[in-house]
User: Fold this.
Amino acid sequence: MGWSQPVLGLPPADETPEEVLRTEIIVEARSPLDGEPLSPSEYAELQAQLQDPNRERTLSSEVRYVIFLLQLRRVIKPVVPFLP
Assistant:
């Protein structure tokens, strides 16, 4: 019983190993908020701001208005059950 077929579970020989990819330094980064390109220092600063638990989170006025309407609907629905 000889093994004449190549092993299919191994990655191709020309593929860069994951261990090497993990050590590469990222010199171009994109903002996770809007996707715009950032320098490494700007990216590190943004990551620090996003991980800060004391950061003030703001919502747009449209989102606040939709939340208000949903809360209002929740209050009115028991009184007027035929609302969608």
User: Anything to note?
Assistant: The longest helix spans residues 61-76. The chain is about 40% helix and 5% strand. Residues 16 and 22 are 10 Å apart (CA to CA).
